[in-house]
Structures are given as structure tokens and as C-alpha cells.
Design goal:
17 strands, Nuclear Transport Factor 2, Chain: A, 4-stranded antiparallel beta sheet, 17 helices, 35% helix, single chain, alpha+beta, 5-stranded antiparallel beta sheet
Length: 475
């Protein structure tokens, strides 16, 4: 079981690796290191280190996690100079049109769907985002305009107009919403990570956040969970004031060869104040957390809402059904190694690989070649005290040979639900005629029990800033 008992609630773009280690910030790189550390001794040595000797900074024959993450981060920046198509072709040693295994060294962070393979489109999208942050969309510009329009009269005038005079096409010393949208608004305003953070908290809308945050961290964040968190912030703390918060002088900290900037502030909500820290990497949001006892046990709030709120259940179920279908396709293709890699690294250490292979084979025997999948619903697995432990997402899989019921067990860690178990069985004859079971029904006990992901020890928050830093106003 994974729980959040601390009053400091971490919004984990930084996710598992940031919360449980102090030497790695890139969740994708840390996870890749864990996969390659076969004997789980915290270093790569012997055969483990054969492909990574270039990262052995001290020449002791072993590659530590710090050396690994620093090495791949440096290599990734160097590789940005190589055209995408050439890099992909050079790395695709077996010429199967995807990168996998050691072909993905330093490129794992671009695996947007987390399936263990990197397509040319994923590579290009990730590298484009690193080379140059995407320009603001129409929705982003609208949010920016409304942020600037302090008196909410639908136009910028007086002090609001400062810096935007060139957008005034008719010379009336006012900029309308249309002029703002059609003009060339200054990019720094739209791309300011602190402004993006504040807009997200005020609006409870994560769209701009997902469009602009650092891509290395988005792989450890599930959109439905962050959306639910934003709603809970609004309920527990109230509306965030439009008055710019006081932001303390930023501090920097080097982690894994990368320089992370910490911006600390006090957020004036309508119900209560809350301290917040925003982490920035390469001028893009890399994580944040909010301190408030009102946000304790967020995972239990999520479980309760899944059982009682059809809208929340539907959003979660549909999101994870897409993830499950991707895994189902991998299993039916016969790639057991890739299917096993879908488990959380901690679960992989405890799962009987042979038993997992039996489940994969049963699915292939029942279904044959993949044809379609249909979502049945999502349920919450609870302990004997009624406390939520995990989710179960159920799908009916149809193939060339027949049909199977596929149940995936998912455990929330940070703001991502990780795979920790799979159950496969043949549907009963009534499945084709009976109405779908309730998405809130308690799931059956798995035939082959997979272990739960052990809870990670709570990590302390980043070190406090130097005493009495000079406050500055930041919107």
C-alpha cells in the first residue's frame, strides 16, 4: 500500500525518483538505472556497467546512480546537435523502427507513453520540446490576457498596458482581447514558469501546465490524478487571490549534474494561506509542492471519489483503459520482456517471472491476435477496515481466437498509478448478455496474487532557503 501521510503534499512531476532519492531528478533516468541495476546494489558493475563505462567518472569500475544520471543528462544535451532522423537511425541497431533496451540510453525520458519503446515521433516531440519551449496556444493567451486584465473590463489599459503598447492597432491606448490574440504578445510573460503555476492553481486547469512543463518529468504524472488534486486544492484552501504572492529570493541546488532553481512563496487562498515551492529546470516547471494539513491523505480522497463520483471514475477508467490496451497488445505480440517491464521496478523485484509468463500465455491462448478491447469499469481494492489500497481496471479483450477478461491492478505513487498485478480469465457465457458490472463493484481476488508495491519512505522536503532572503514581487 502506498499512502501520503505528510502534511507537506508533493505534486510529483519529480515523482518517484525525486521523493525517494537525493541524487537524481530525472525520473526517467532514475527508473532506467533501477532497471539496469539487476542485483539491486545501488551501482552498475561487471556486465551491468559494460555499456556505461563512459559515465564512470572516478574510474573505479562501477557506475553510481549519480554518475549515471549526470552522464546521460550530459550525453542527451550533446545529442541534440544531431538531426532527429540520423540519431534514430544510428541508435536503431536492429532496424525494427523503434528504439528499445540499450538503444534507448539517455533517451528514455522521451518515451511519452511509457511502453518501453521509443518511436521516431516520440523522439522528435521530446527533443523539440527540449530545444525550444512551445509557443503559447490560444487558450494560453486567453489565460494570460485575463491575468493582465486586473479590473476585468475586457481590455488592457493604463498600467495594464505596460509592455503591450505595440498590440494597440487602432491607437486608442487600449488592447482588446482580439488584439491581444492576434498580436505578437511578449513570450516571457506566457512562458514564465511561476506565472504558469499560479494560473494553474487559480483556474484548476492543468492544460497549460502539461503543455509547457519540462518533458523529463511529465512521464511520471497522470493527468486525471493531477486534475483531481487541483480540484481538492480549491475545495480545501479556497480561491487563490489575484494579488501577486511574495516570492522569496530563489535558491539553486545541483542534483545529478542539473541545476534546479527553487522558488518559495506563501499563497493567499480565501480559506487559509499555504506555503508553496516551485522547482524550475531550464526555465520550465519541473515540480512543485504545497504545504497544508488540509491536503493530508490525498490518496484516500481519490479512492473515495472513485467509488462515489461517476465523473471521477469515468475519467480514471478511460485513461487507464488506454494504458491497459497498450499493454495487452504487447502481451499478445509475444514480447514478454516488454510486458514485464510495464510493472513498477519495485514490483518487478517481487513478482515471480514464471507466474507472470503464465498469465501472458493464458491471454494469448484465449484471444490470439488482438482485435479490440472494451472497458468494463474501475474498482477500488480496500483493506478490511475499508481503506483504499489500489485500483483495478477491467477490460474485455476480443481476439482472433476468442475473448478474455483482463484485470490490471494499479497502485498510486505520487501522481501516477503504477502497474503491480494482472489477472486474466475466460469470461462467463453471461458476459455477452448481462449489463456491464458497476464500475464501483469490489473486484474479485486475483487467481495469481501479485505483490503490492512497497511504500517508499517519506523524503524530507528540500532544504530551507537562506535566512531572511529579500522578498520580490512575482506574478
Amino acid at each position: 500500500m502506498i499512502t501520503h501521510q505528510r502534511s507537506i503534499f508533493v505534486v510529483a512531476l519529480v515523482a518517484v525518483s525525486f521523493l525517494s532519492t537525493s541524487n537524481s531528478l530525472l525520473a526517467g533516468d532514475a527508473e532506467a538505472f533501477a532497471h539496469r541495476d539487476v542485483n539491486d546494489d545501488g551501482v552498475l558493475s561487471g556486465k551491468e556497467a559494460a555499456a556505461f563505462v563512459q559515465f564512470d567518472a572516478d574510474g573505479d569500475g562501477e557506475v553510481t546512480k549519480t554518475e549515471y544520471t549526470a552522464g546521460v543528462a550530459k550525453l542527451r544535451k550533446q545529442l541534440l546537435e544531431i538531426p532527429d532522423d540520423k540519431l534514430f537511425a544510428d541508435y536503431d541497431k536492429n532496424e525494427d523502427s523503434v528504439l528499445s533496451g540499450t538503444e534507448m540510453i539517455a533517451l528514455e525520458v522521451y518515451d511519452a507513453d511509457g511502453d518501453g519503446e521509443l518511436s521516431i515521433n516520440e523522439l522528435k516531440a521530446g527533443r523539440d520540446a527540449e530545444r525550444k519551449p512551445a509557443g503559447p496556444s490560444r487558450d494560453e493567451l486567453l489565460r494570460q490576457f485575463r491575468e493582465l486584465d486586473k479590473n476585468e473590463d475586457g481590455r488592457l489599459s493604463g498600467k495594464e498596458l505596460a509592455g503591450y503598447e505595440k498590440l494597440d492597432r487602432n491607437g486608442d491606448r487600449r488592447v482588446t482581447e482580439q488584439e491581444f490574440l492576434e498580436g505578437d504578445a511578449p513570450a516571457p510573460q506566457a512562458g514564465d514558469p511561476l506565472a504558469i503555476f499560479l494560473r494553474m492553481i487559480r483556474s484548476s486547469d492543468s492544460t497549460e501546465f502539461f503543455d509547457t512543463a519540462h518533458p523529463s518529468f511529465l512521464i511520471e504524472l497522470d493527468r486525471p490524478i493531477i486534475n483531481f488534486f487541483l480540484a481538492q486544492v480549491s475545495i480545501a484552501l479556497g480561491e487563490l487571490s489575484k494579488t501577486p504572492p511574495e516570492v522569496m529570493a530563489p535558491t539553486t541546488q545541483e542534483e545529478g549534474g542539473l541545476v534546479l532553481t527553487y522558488h518559495r512563496m506563501e499563497l493567499p487562498f480565501s480559506i487559509t494561506k499555504a506555503k508553496a515551492t516551485v522547482m524550475v529546470l531550464e526555465n520550465r516547471l519541473a515540480g512543485f509542492y504545497i504545504e497544508s494539513p488540509l491536503l493530508k491523505e490525498f490518496d484516500q480522497l481519490l479512492f473515495q471519489a472513485t467509488e462515489s463520483n461517476p465523473k471521477v471514475a469515468k475519467e480514471l477508467a478511460e485513461y487507464y483503459a488506454r494504458k491497459c490496451e497498450t499493454l495487452i497488445r504487447v502481451i499478445l505480440s509475444g514480447d514478454d520482456d516488454k510486458a514485464f517491464a510495464a510493472y513498477h521496478p519495485e514490483a518487478q523485484k517481487q513478482i515471480d517471472r514464471e507466474k507472470a509468463g503464465e498469465i501472458y500465455q493464458l491471454l494469448r491462448e484465449l484471444c490470439g491476435e488482438f482485435q479490440s478491447s472494451k472497458l468494463v469499469g474501475i474498482a477500488v481494492n480496500s483493506d478490511d477496515k475499508g481503506k483504499g489500497q489500489s485500483f483495478s481496471v477491467t477490460l474485455i479483450v476480443s481476439g482472433s481466437k476468442g475473448r478474455a477478461e483482463f484485470i490490471a491492478k494499479l497502485e498510486a505513487l505520487g501522481f501516477k498509478a503504477h502497474l503491480s498485478g494482472i489477472r486474466v480469465k475466460q469470461p462467463t457465457a453471461s458476459d455477452s448478455t448481462a449489463p456491464p458490472p458497476s464500475p464501483f463493484a469490489k473486484p474479485p481476488t486475483p487467481a495469481i496474487k501479485m505483490p503490492a508495491i512497497p511504500a517508499k519512505p517519506s523524503a524530507p522536503p528540500p532544504p530551507p532557503p537562506p535566512p531572511a532572503p529579500a522578498p520580490v514581487n512575482k506574478n
